[in-house]
Specification:
alpha/beta; 8 helices; binds D-xylitol-5-phosphate; binds zinc ion
Length: 235
């Protein structure tokens, strides 16, 4: 069963509680929380006080995506602030520091995730494979919501899927960026199990209907998967 994780980056922050309620009632599985530092990506977004407020407001699983340099400095504070899963970027520091950040998250009893930018090769995840519960494959350049899905990332997703299956690892595969009912079905056909969707969900009038559409497209995609009707394509 695919999980849907609406990204609150696209929510109306003046009504954040009601926005969270709307996706929770609409059937969201997780809530995706984007943190940007203006250095790793050319944008700023949310931080500790907002995460603490969201944590106090909802018991939804909080999927925190750190787009920050040297994330080891802050992972424990994000865990304390209420993250259930903390994802750091492979490109954000040395291999040693990233491994240490991932282990710290797990030592604090939270799930640890590793994110790969679109241009980062799939095998950059290999040295971390024992230390992660999730791999996040970015399908846009991180930093902004509302961009178009990069279908050329799909083969990378497929390679990661094969590797995880080959080693019998439980690690989840997540995609983030430009997810809509069409691209969701492509991502799931390539092995994604968690779909982050910002604009597609929060810019829809009816969030339940949109979440249902995302799930429905995935089901239809899975039905067609076997007959090769879903070749990766650039859109
Ligand atoms: C982009 C963020 C995404 C963003 C996705 O850097 O990591 O989570 O919110 O937004 P959409 O779904 O609009 O592409
Ligand atoms: Zn994100």
């Amino acid at each position: 069963m695919v999980k849907i994780a609406p990204s609150i980056l696209a929510a109306d922050f003046a009504r954040l509680g009601a926005e969270i309620d709307s996706v929770r009632e609409g059937g969201a599985d997780w809530l995706h929380f984007d943190v940007m530092d203006g250095v790793f990506v050319p944008n700023l977004s949310l931080g500790f006080p907002v995460l603490e407020g969201v944590r106090a407001y909802t018991d939804l699983f909080l999927d925190v995506h750190l787009m920050i340099r040297e994330p080891k400095r802050y992972v424990s504070r994000f865990c304390e602030a209420g993250a259930d899963l903390v994802t750091v970027h492979a490109e954000a520091d040395t291999e040693e520091e990233i491994r240490s950040a991932l282990r710290e998250v797990r030592a604090l009893g939270r799930k640890a995730g590793l994110a790969l930018k679109p241009g980062t090769a799939w095998d950059r995840a290999l040295p971390f494979i024992e230390d992660v519960d999730l791999i996040l494959v970015m399908t846009v350049e991180p930093g902004f919501g509302g961009q178009s899905f990069m279908a050329n990332v799909l083969p990378k997703l497929g390679l990661l899927r094969e590797t995880l299956d080959e080693f019998g690892l439980e690690c989840l595969l997540e995609v983030d960026g430009g997810v809509n009912p069409l691209t969701a079905s492509l991502a799931v056909a390539s092995g994604a199990q968690v779909l982050v969707a910002g604009s597609d969900v929060f810019h829809a009038q009816n969030r339940k209907e949109q979440i249902d559409l995302l799930r429905g497209s995935v089901k239809n995609g899975a039905d067609r998967e076997g007959d090769g009707a879903l070749p990766p394509k650039r859109i």
